[in-house]
Fold:
Amino acid sequence: MFQSPLSAPQAASPPRPTLAPISGAVATLQALVAEGVDTIFGYPGGAIIPIYDALYDFTTQLNHVLVRHEQGGIHAAQGYARASGRVGVVLATSGPGATNLVTGLADALIDSTPLVCITGQVFAHLLGSDAFQETDILNITTPITKWNYQVTKAEEIPEALARAFYLARSGRPGPVLVDITKNAQQQLFDAPAYAPCTHIRSYRPAPVVRPAYVRQAAELINSAQRPFILWGQGVVLGSAEVEFRAFVEKSGIPAAWTILGVGALPTGHPLNVGMLGMHGNYGPNVLTNECDVLIAIGMRFDDRVTGRLDKYARQARVIHLDIDPTEIDKNVPATVPVWGDCKETLPLLTALVEPRTHPAWLARFHDYTAQEIDAVIREELFPTSEELTMGEVMQQLNELSQGEAIIVSDVGQHQMVACRYARMNHPRSHVTSGGLGTMGFALPAAIGAKLGAPGRVVVAVIGDGGFQMTIQELGTVMQTGVDVKIIILNNQFLGMVRQWQELFHQRRYSFVDIQSPDFVAVAKGYHIAGQRVDARADLRPALEEMLAHPGSFLLEVMVMKENNIFPMVPQGCSVAEIRLR
Structure:
């Protein structure tokens, strides 16, 4: 988290010409245009009315998407940012409007998603008086933003927003919040020409690369017999997919991904050995505890990846590449820390590693994959049971989409199935809530993803529980006409909690049996086409209809009620204790 007052000294700059007096609200929107923003998500209210009044004259420059709830707005902004690689922007009013952003801010911080959130606030002279819809949003959001700031005078707006965008997108990206009092929005001032921020004293978004550490890392890799690469979203955030692939292919090292890193290397690549973590693939988990050199790139050793830390890769020497120095040694001690943007550090490392292959070591991964196919995958993707499985839905979708779609998954069993089985040929092809695990994320995030990547097919994969948390955003789909394909995998349970209750709580199913409305009928009420499937013979034709339909489509698939997601690393266990059943 970075905190900096606006009064911090800046490098000297030449005088800038002034324009005619404008309001703080107009200055806010001019800043967005100057930063290249084309789409904003929001919901109006009393304390932000001046900005919305000014927005009336900016509709040719800014596309405003009216969501149905502020949480939907910030998740849509997250989806936009993750699919496009640009900064997502959301507007909200004071009080409950601002506090409704909190879940999305926490989600964006832990998943390193660049956002600029602009909230309205009561008049400056009312601050601290418990005025109507006044909330101290700065103190509420300090732990869950990269930076936040309250503007009380119109003159502060251009510089505050310039800093906000710079901080949101630079270094390790993240969410920022700028709270603007109503009087600051209304005040007129002689606004200088907008100047983007390029430097803040004491803020170093890109650490200085230390060549000695790069050389040490290369020496370890060149001497390794069983090296293993773990990569995360840092590769994607750094736009380093080309550099990463060159490193993997030259070194010949097997590589596995976290759920946010998927897509940096195509899922079909011969050195891509699968997913890490609690519901990851069998081989990557077991062999983490057998490798001799572990190379972590742009990942933070989350507990869902490591399992029990005191039993995690104790035999391995660890090389950790990350742009955020605070992640180095935070959970797993690094033998060699390589600080810096991986787009810069990976080519330096690749130049020093020897071209190699590791056929015997790679074969170990393939052996575990064969075991996993026999124990889990075959029955999940090509079931012999009468009931449909989540895995076969993803398998059919893979065959029809050929790995070209963006998959936006919610949180739960279906999320793990989507992560494990979705085919992805390109970066930024999977959008999900990774670190916070926010149910209700997928529908609004899919709206944002489609607006951020309009040329790609966007498919939201959602559970029946999570869908009902933000179901109102079907109204946003209806009003915008955005083309989002929605698949609800309905097992009539809060499936992931039910699985834990079955495995670890003697099948005491406490409040996980959830009843749902007729989702297809609800979609019809929003003028969205839909279909329900509960027979295998109808699945593929329904998926074909969904993908071919000119516009949004909701497909509800009734799947097995008590199907569990395996493999699984039980909480408190080592990754090597992963269960196939």
Summary: Residues 252 and 408 are 31 Å apart (CA to CA). Confidence is low (pLDDT under 50) at residues 1-5, 7-13.
